[in-house]
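Tokens in:
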């Protein structure tokens, strides 16, 4: 899992049952690396984290090592985690609870973020991106060569 990096954005639509169709470029990797098994949970920025199961297990193990002072965040991540699978039609069902948590309605964005993906409501992501762009570069990127 550590050698593959998810990247890029895909504009998708939730169907009437709350499913998305996984783009081919991600689906093939997810099937190969995780047999189509994923774990979804909340992200503090208002989107959903989408982990291939092996990456989730690594993240979960790290969460379990956190001190008691992080119990609230452990509850957010673990208490809202849902295991799902890519079905025969290449779809993933997003539970009503997680759809509500991320305000997902119809138009969504799936973003590759390294070892995981993020699923955003398209409008919410546009607002988030505009806010980030308006904030200027953080110090960590000021000397970064593009």
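Residues out:
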């Amino acid at each position: 899992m550590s050698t593959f990096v998810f990247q890029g954005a895909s504009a998708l639509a939730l169907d009437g049952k709350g499913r998305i169709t996984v783009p081919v470029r991600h689906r093939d990797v997810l099937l190969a690396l995780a047999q189509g098994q994923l774990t979804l949970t909340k992200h503090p920025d208002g989107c959903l984290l989408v982990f291939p199961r092996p990456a989730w297990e690594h993240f979960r193990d790290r969460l379990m090592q956190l001190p008691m002072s992080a119990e609230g965040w452990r509850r957010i991540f673990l208490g809202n985690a849902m295991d799902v699978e890519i079905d025969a039609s290449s779809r993933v069902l997003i539970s009503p609870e997680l759809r509500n948590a991320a305000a997902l309605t119809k138009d969504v964005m799936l973003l590759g973020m390294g070892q995981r993906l993020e699923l955003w409501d398209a409008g919410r992501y546009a607002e988030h991106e505009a806010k980030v762009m308006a904030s200027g570069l953080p110090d960590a990127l000021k000397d970064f060569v593009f």
